[in-house]
Amino acid sequence: MVKKFIIKGLVQGIGYRPFVAKIADELNIAGWVRNTGGIVTVMACGSEEDLKSFHRKLSFDVPTGGFVTDIRIENVDNSDEFRLSEKGTGFVILESDEDVQENLPLIPADIATCDTCKSELLDPANRRYMHPFISCTICGPRYSIIEKLPYDRDTITMADFEMCDDCRAEYTGKKDRRRHAQTIACKDCGPSLKFVRLKYKITDNVTECGNVDNIVDIYNENDIVSEISRSSQLIKSGGILAIKDIGGYHLACDPFNEKAVAALRILKHREAKAFAVMFEDVDKVREFCNVDNFEADLLESPARPIVLVRRREDVSFPQNVCLTSPDIGAMLPCNPVQIMLVHECGSLIMTSGNASRDVLEIDNDRMTAWLQERVNSGELPEDVPVGILSHNRRILRPMDDSVMKVVRGRKQFIRRGRGHVPNPIPVDISGEIFAAGGDLKSSFCYVKDGLAYVSQYLGDLEAVSCQQFYKNEMTGMEQIFGFKPEAVVCDLHPGYFSRKMAAQLAEDRALPISYVQHHKAHVAAVIAEHHLQGQVLGFAFDGTGYGEDGTVWGSEVFIWDGKGNMERVAHMKPVKLIGGNEGAKNCDTILTGMLHAAVQDDKDTNPNAKLIAAAIDNNINTVVSTSMGRWFDAMSAHLDICHYNSYEGQAPIELENIVYTNSDKGIIAREFIYSVADFILTQAKKYQIKQVVLSGGTFLNRILLERTIDILEAEGFQVYISEQLPPGDGSICLGQAYLAHFNILHHKLRTPS
């Protein structure tokens, strides 16, 4: 009996074909397995009983990191369709072919080094001892190195490296755990490391172009142990090391070396934000933090995200690493290079390898040029050495670390990136849609076959580099997944770059386009993620969003009827404030606007208060705002905590952090935050809709979110937050797609003329 199995799901890049072949061999089934575009096709010949067992195992068993969504079985009568390899009988893995039916593929995210590979890495008797690119069928880079489907050696950047005979034998060996591991490599045939140390002083080293060469290259080819040793030595001596990892560069230093940390802040222009810290394992994290089981599971998950965990009060940790934060952004090593460095050096600061607000760097030459420029600037102390540990495996798309925390038993993304992208989110959305998202903390998504593919964090689109990043990822996702959107949706804001990209796409392809209000998209994203049915009361609190009346919204309460209609039913009183980017950053100016609107000018200590009030009264560069975020800014300034947002959300973050000090200011800050939660409860009681959604960047405030969940659930309300996307603007693309779905159903889309 011969049967054909067509298997859909996340079945490429996880060792699924060797997994199928192993099951077939165990059941004495002949035939073949191959990648077909983005799916897997199996031809199997055996007894009826064995084929039933085969189907059962394929339905319920899957390698780590994968899942099966559907298995279609066809009886095969044509002997030409059932063909074996040239070797004759048995079960074999065939070369991949194209998917003529264009099934939607699922591609794994980059996967952390598995425990078995880690053991081999640290085993002096293993041939891959200290091999910085060790991997197998269930671990290693995936999405960051794929050029096109199907996922094979020649369609990923490992195609640049020819396998040696030993690796080839493992790759083809029936019982080897690296059978058909596309990232297989060893010291003799794989990518290589390169360590360089930058000089501080101009020397007489002159390149062929006549330029002064300030780089000291002390790389010894194939001397991997030396490269790791020299890198470790630089860190231990108080230096800063740029490390090329899976998704791009990190900058690392010793968190316990105050001078190195201070130099790193100068290097990145990151004076006011806490740094993440990489620990060797969860036990090391627990030496400094209180880690519950949920947080430990997240830390050890294959995604290896940064997880915000509460610092222990009985153990000190360097102040200039965490600054005012009560948490440590803890992470565990996700690749062999990190494993070896942390093993040698102990805990390390690990922060993204780029200047603040720029795209994560993936190119060796650009990273070298940027670091050399920073070193030559004279801003860094000359006794802090700077080095680069790079490799020659190409990274095709930058992928920042994912950042998460746990709030009342729920996981919450702060940033969604490596380890989670491009994993799709199941949604009740029909058709094929491109949703452009927003411009701050941007991401976009493609939706097809009820799956939303949300891009990684793309940064703030006011930066030209982030705009190009956005364009590249749009093109890349379309090419890899074969998306052909039938409709386009974007934000209402007329000045958004993301809106311009959406409009251009709609015009170029004559596609219908719809425009969705920012905060409605926030609420809709949570509704879509949780598949909520019926009425929903939604709260969308953040810093800014273009309203349907042309003003700035940000403290919005909506009722969703479950049928495609969302009504704005409440918000904070509109206040006239100074507009523009500077107006949103200067907390003193915001406070002056708030006091002026409340006719409390006599309580304003701002020396520029009269000038600001005059500008507001004469409508000079003003906006009308209901933003909740601006209230947090004003309170932070009022309590003399933070007067200027040097990065987005700094004042609200500092306001939250001071609560944990239990100082007089902290008590006032807590009462203010609790009053916001009380406002939410008042609205919930007023409308008596049991399903309540909380969304928007303001709900990254742990105190606010915990308090709101507690008091709502105590009154019998069911509370939902984003758990697969950030609550901020990184989620609005999903909400846009969900509302566009209803616009399509109700024929509310516009087609460009």
TrEMBL record:
The keyword Protein biosynthesis does not apply. Residues 2-95 form the Acylphosphatase-like domain. InterPro entries: Acylphosphatase-like_dom, Acylphosphatase-like_dom_sf, ATPase_NBD, Carbamoyltrans_HypF-like, Carbamoyltransferase_HypF, DHBP_synth_RibB-like_a/b_dom, HypF_C, HypF_C_2. Pathway: Protein modification; [NiFe] hydrogenase maturation. It comes from the Bacteria. One of its GO terms (biological process) is protein maturation. It catalyses: C-terminal L-cysteinyl-[HypE protein] + carbamoyl phosphate + ATP + H2O = C-terminal S-carboxamide-L-cysteinyl-[HypE protein] + AMP + phosphate + diphosphate + H(+); an acyl phosphate + H2O = a carboxylate + phosphate + H(+). Residues 225-419 form the YrdC-like domain. GO terms for molecular function: acylphosphatase activity; carboxyl- or carbamoyltransferase activity; double-stranded RNA binding; ligase activity; zinc ion binding. The active site is at residues 17, 35. SUPFAM superfamilies: Actin-like ATPase domain (SSF53067), Acylphosphatase/BLUF domain-like (SSF54975), YrdC/RibB (SSF55821). Keywords: Hydrolase, Ligase, Metal-binding, Zinc, Zinc-finger. The keyword Hydrolase applies. Its EC number is 6.2.-.-. PANTHER family: CARBAMOYLTRANSFERASE, CARBAMOYLTRANSFERASE HYPF. Belongs to the carbamoyltransferase HypF family. This is Carbamoyltransferase. It comes from Pseudobutyrivibrio xylanivorans. The lineage of its organism: Bacteria, Bacillati, Bacillota, Clostridia, Lachnospirales. The gene is hypF.
